[in-house]
Design goal:
de novo design (two linked rop proteins); 536 residues; four-stranded parallel sheet; single chain; disordered C terminus; six-stranded mixed sheet; Rossmann fold; alpha/beta; Ubiquitin-like (UB roll)
């Protein structure tokens, strides 16, 4: 089992059927340019309309989660560039900052030239002379910079194609397209408050074709094989292969290349998942849960998973065994998602912590009132953020509550399910000292603590840092301590200084300092068995 540990950058890679994206992986750890050409062969340029028609014939959609048709995006960028008379820009999004996803990281580390093939093909088709590859990991930065050097590409002035790698912090929101574009322009790696279509105005204000690494790699495969041959693999309406990251309650976390339409139960079997998982999270931490019966009958495709109530998203598949509290596992993820806020819009930096606390109240035996309050919070968060992070996080919490009805009833109406939280869903490790977390995003390593012997219930703290402290029905803070994200540090210091009773203090978080994963801390009372170390 994973035990909640972060996945390695390059986990085990396996394939079902004939490899396409992973061709050559059995020969070398990384395909340099020479080996890449021996495995895949040369690639001839394709005109813009022909390339769009190819993407249309193979039904190519973005593989980063949104699933937007690539042909439509390509034509939109080309039209905007012609209308405005400016050169467009091509951006490869290789950020992949979700802890449960590693497919793009594997591609960039092991087959970077396949990704570059597709990106340069698209750049030639739309007349772009600038290529930006966005990454967040040191390994992907090294591999891509090496690949650019192998092709003689650089960012020097006067070059026919200026190419560079944009390294951003490992944060959930830095992989959002507008955040990547903003950082490529020298700004912070956070989504802007104003939403502008990248195809109209992206990097440097130019029309920008942005898609993720797997999408460009799929385009390169199709350009070599042709649409007819490409369509022989997988489903008729979603041809080709998909890259999946399988983790959670599995014996062998892996990235798997498989034809679309492969049974989900076969994917789980290959990774060593329990024969009867109590649930399978599809699409990652902005995805949705499938119950045991539905997961057994499901096949892997965007349309099929959505019809079953799941999601393909960025291709993350995470089963849960029967020996852990599923809602407790969801609470760990909900807390992590809340901490991934960029701290710049209220629905995100206030709403998501409130949703995590609401889920904790449900698990602590808060009853139907706590469940209704949680539903109101998640509903209020949606469609009000600067990016899709609040929406996806709220959807994850809602799906968790809906999927595990028996466990939910045990927590809401009884004393809990009686199972411990084992932390089997992978979460991101804290960045090493000195690497930075990107401005004011990320955890600060501090916590705000209340001294109950001094607190007099003035309530100023809740006014200053409402994202961390709320008042209970008795007028006193409802928490004894709260982890402080970087974006709340200044307000937390102000709350400490303004407390009339001197009842607040900032201290180092010992769990963070010791490098341990943090499991939920329950309030005294009901539900203790749900998240404890075992049955009472």
């Amino acid at each position: 089992m994973n035990g909640g540990a972060a996945l390695p950058d390059v986990p085990e890679v396996r394939v079902v059927g004939l490899p396409q994206l992973t061709s050559g992986f059995d020969l070398v750890e990384r395909l340099d340019l020479g080996t890449h050409l021996q495995v895949h062969g040369p690639l001839e340029p394709i005109g813009g309309e022909r390339l769009a028609a190819l993407a249309e014939r193979i039904s190519l959609r973005g593989r980063g989660g949104a699933g937007f048709p690539f042909a439509r995006k390509l034509r939109s960028v080309a039209d905007a560039a012609i209308r405005r008379g400016v050169r467009p820009v091509v951006v490869v999004n290789g950020s992949e900052d979700e802890p449960a996803c590693r497919k793009d990281t594997v591609l960039i580390n092991r087959a970077p030239h396949l990704v570059l093939d597709g990106a340069l093909l698209a750049a030639e088709a739309v007349g772009a002379r600038t290529l930006v590859v966005g990454v967040t990991r040191e390994s992907t930065q090294r591999s891509m910079e090496r690949a650019l050097a192998e092709r003689g590409l650089s960012n020097r002035r006067g070059a026919s194609m200026r190419a560079r790698v944009q390294r951003n912090p490992v944060r959930m929101v830095t992989g959002e397209s507008s955040a990547l574009i903003r950082s490529a322009d020298g700004g912070p790696a956070r989504p802007p408050g104003r939403k502008v279509r990248a195809s109209e105005a992206g990097v440097g204000g130019a029309p920008t074709l942005l898609s993720n690494a797997e999408t460009f790699a799929q385009l390169a495969i199709a350009a070599r094989t042709g649409a007819d041959r490409y369509r022989r693999t997988g489903l008729r309406d979603e041809p080709g292969t998909v890259l999946l990251t399988v983790s959670g309650a599995v014996a062998r976390p892996m990235v798997l290349e498989a034809p679309s339409g492969v049974p989900l139960r076969y994917v789980l079997q290959l990774a060593g998942a329990p024969p009867l998982p109590q649930g399978v999270l599809t699409g990652g931490y902005h995805g949705r849960w499938l119950d045991t019966a539905t997961a057994h009958d499901a096949i892997v495709s965007r349309a099929a998973l959505e019809a079953a109530g799941g999601a393909l998203g960025a291709g993350a598949i995470l089963p849960l065994g029967q020996d852990t509290c599923p809602l407790g596992e969801a609470l760990l993820v909900a807390r992590w998602l809340a901490g991934e806020s960029a701290g710049q819009c209220g629905p995100c930096y206030r709403g998501l912590p409130a949703a995590a606390r609401g889920l904790e109240d449900v698990l602590n035996g808060g009853g139907p009132a706590a469940l209704e309050a949680l539903r109101q919070i998640t509903h209020a968060v949606k469609r009000r953020g600067a990016c899709k992070h609040p929406d996806g996080s709220a959807a994850f919490i809602e799906s968790s509550v809906s999927a595990f009805t028996d466990d939910l009833a045990a927590h809401v109406l009884g004393s809990g399910c009686g199972r411990p939280v084992r932390g089997v869903l992978p979460l991101q490790e804290e960045p090493a000292a000195g690497t930075g977390t990107g401005g004011d995003a990320g955890p600060s390593g501090q916590r705000l603590a209340v001294d109950w012997t001094l607190c007099q219930g003035h309530g100023l703290c809740a006014d200053i840092v409402p994202e961390l402290i709320q008042l209970g029905q008795d007028g006193y803070p409802s928490v004894a301590e709260a982890a402080v994200p970087r974006y709340s540090q200044a307000r937390a210091v102000r709350a400490v200084r303004r407390c009339p009773a001197l009842a607040l203090r900032l201290e180092e978080d010992p769990a963070k300092a010791a490098g341990r994963s943090v499991l939920p801390m329950l309030q005294p009372g009901r539900g203790r068995r749900a998240l404890g170390s075992g049955r009472e």
